[in-house]
Write a structure and sequence with these properties.
- This protein has a domain of about 110 residues: Cobalamin adenosyltransferase-like (Hypothetical Protein Ta1238, Chain: A).
- The termini are far apart.
- It has five helices and no strands.
- The radius of gyration is 18 Å and the shape is globular.
- It is mainly α and about 170 residues long.
Amino acid sequence: MTEKLYRSPYEAYPFLCDDAADLRCDFELMTDDMASLTGLLRAKVTDSALRAELLWVCELIYHLNPALRTALKTAPAETQRLLAAVGRLRAACGERCRRFVLTQGCEAACLAHILRVRAKALVRLLYRHAQQGRPVAPALLDMANLLSGYFFHLALWLNARAGVDEIEFVSRNY
């Protein structure tokens, strides 16, 4: 017989004790983490247009947060806006985004790279959730993937603005 799980009266979030196979709380914690890091990145940039965009991205990530537990409430126009931001940054980076680069550079770019990886981890969690037979809105997968692309191109753009050269990574395996 298993011992009853202790529930702290100070529990920080009511779903923290969810069954380990239930990935919804993990998704919510990951989006909360990403939104918090986006706020930190925003604190490290001075460009007013980028600060406004990062505030929007932070809010967008929080709108994704309950999507597995309730429903995805983002609009197609928000996906298009994020896609346009990725395209704008990609175009501004030019040749910088044609190589695999080391995750280095200015502090803001390094933080953007961390967010890029966190978005990929979010995508991975969504695929695991779907593989368990649970519904995942295609638009949610699109948004999580776009966030990874956004933060990647933002890292390159931030390094370019800071005058930091990208360092190409050449794998010994590929």
